[in-house]
Design a protein that fits this description.
about 15% helix; two-stranded antiparallel sheet; flat; five-stranded mixed barrel; mainly beta
């Protein structure tokens, strides 16, 4: 009889455990199946905390989270002063280098870019986005307007023309700053919170541009008094 009671007790305990596990599983499944609302909107970045941004969208502050699958595209302009800090970044331009990699003439247009994923499964690979440029490579040395770029055929030595635009077009999270505009796409399960699948940032300032010192305004000298008789 004792053995029978012990068996019944174990059986009851096992059944209770199954009920608890089933209940927990249902709760987890319910959380996973919480309705996800597709969201698209644009706003201004007000704060950045690692992979979480606070974005003001229509006077409402949204907490935007990014993950490894989020697609980021940054567009804007960089100054030549920013290039030494971007050694290793990919650039492309139009030029006809000689056998030694020397390019005659100045470069009037330079673009900083990143590779993009193409294809699926085993065929998935990184490729350069389509463009009209005929040269590309990684920045090896940057000093002033002069660059050494490592390309497929070796090193190229180029010089940027004064005032030549240096375009930014790719995934460059390090140059994003508070005040930039961002267009977002993603899923929202909680009001005011967004899991971003895509973010397109338009930089509000030129990256690396040095602030010009303010010239103090000259106070006009008072005109000498004229005596009247």
């Amino acid at each position: 009889m004792g053995i029978c009671m012990s068996s019944r007790a174990r059986c009851c305990t096992f059944l209770i455990s199954l009920v608890l596990i089933a209940g927990t599983a249902k709760l987890a499944t319910a959380a996973d199946k919480a309705p996800k609302n597709k969201f698209e909107g644009s706003g201004t970045i007000e704060a950045m905390q690692g992979s979480v941004w606070i974005v003001n969208i229509s006077d409402t502050k949204w907490k935007v989270a990014f993950n490894a699958d989020s697609k980021l595209t940054v567009t804007g302009i960089a100054a030549p002063e920013a290039l030494p800090r971007m050694v290793g970044a990919l650039v492309r331009f139009n030029a006809e280098p000689d056998a030694k990699g020397k390019v005659s003439g100045e470069i009037n247009d330079l673009e900083l870019f990143t590779m993009v994923w193409e294809g699926r499964g085993k065929d998935k690979k990184q490729v350069a986005p389509s463009s009209n440029y005929n040269q590309m490579g990684a920045i090896k040395v940057a000093k002033g307007n002069k660059l050494t770029v490592s390309g497929k055929s070796g090193e190229m030595h180029i010089e940027l023309a004064e005032g030549a635009p240096i375009k930014i077009n790719g995934a460059f999270p390090a140059v994003v700053a508070v005040g930039d505009l961002v267009k977002l796409k993603g899923d929202s399960t909680v009001p005011g919170q967004l899991n971003a699948s895509e973010a397109t940032v338009t930089l509000s300032k030129t990256v690396g541009e040095k602030k010009k010192p303010k010239v103090p305004e000259k106070t006009p000298k008072p005109e000498p008094a004229v005596e009247t008789k």
